[in-house]
Write a structure and sequence with these properties.
Distance between the termini: 10 Å
CATH superfamily: Nucleoside diphosphate kinase-like domain
Radius of gyration: 15 Å
Number of helices: 9
Number of strands: 4
Strand order of the largest sheet: 2-3-1-4
Mean pLDDT: 97
Number of domains: 1
Shape: globular
CATH class: Alpha Beta
Order of helices and strands: EHHEHHEHHHEHH
Helix content: 40-55%
Bound molecules: adenosine-5'-triphosphate, magnesium ion
Largest sheet: 4 strands, antiparallel
């Protein structure tokens, strides 16, 4: 039941100064941060990360968006982490994301609007969509020795 998930604060979130605000939400929920880095990924890496979307009409714009500035990536661990992280993140389209979620609180555009504007959907954050995706993404973004093993105070009361 204890799972890992990969979170990425996208270039719009970094440029808007939302790094601390976003990390706080995962810490507040008692999730454990296993590793973290700021990185400006190149096109090749972005295409690998979003490989599942390569046939989508917005793929080119998505790759342009995710490479337009540095991102902050972190791996988190927790009970049902994949599902719980997605709940904190909210629906893909900020327009549908409930208030209280990261996308619902910090963005409001729709993917429809992004498509019409020919831009990658600026929705502040990425989170793994499944356990399989999480395992593959953590492996892609982090070397083994960048994922740390330590004990948090939460493990007594939250896990
Ligand atoms: P992410 O994988 O980034 O966490 P998600 O899993 O909620 O997002 P996906 O369906 O995997 O949603 O889409 C990946 C990303 O592609 C979205 O987060 C968004 O930035 C972008 N995107 C999705 N649909 C569109 C669209 N119609 N137009 C432009 N960009 C889009
Ligand atoms: Mg996804």
């Amino acid at each position: 039941m204890i799972e890992r998930s990969l979170v990425i604060i996208k270039p719009d979130g970094v440029e808007r100064g939302l790094i601390g605000e976003i990390i706080k939400r995962f810490e507040n929920a008692g999730m454990k941060i296993l590793g973290m880095k700021m990185v400006w990924i190149d096109r090749k890496f972005a295409e690998k990360h979003y490989e599942a979307h390569k046939t989508k009409p917005f793929f080119k714009e998505l790759v342009e968006f995710i490479t337009e500035g540095p991102v902050v990536a972190f791996a988190v661990e927790g009970v049902h982490a994949v599902e719980n992280v997605r709940r904190l993140v909210g629906d893909t389209s900020p327009h549908e994301a409930a208030p209280g979620t990261i996308r619902g609180d910090f963005a409001h555009i729709s993917m429809d609007y992004a498509s019409r504007k020919k831009s990658g959907g600026k929705n502040v954050i990425h989170a793994s969509g499944s356990k399989k995706e999480a395992d593959a993404e953590i492996k892609l973004w982090f070397k083994k020795d960048e994922i740390h093993s330590y004990t948090t105070v939460h493990e007594k009361h939250v896990f």
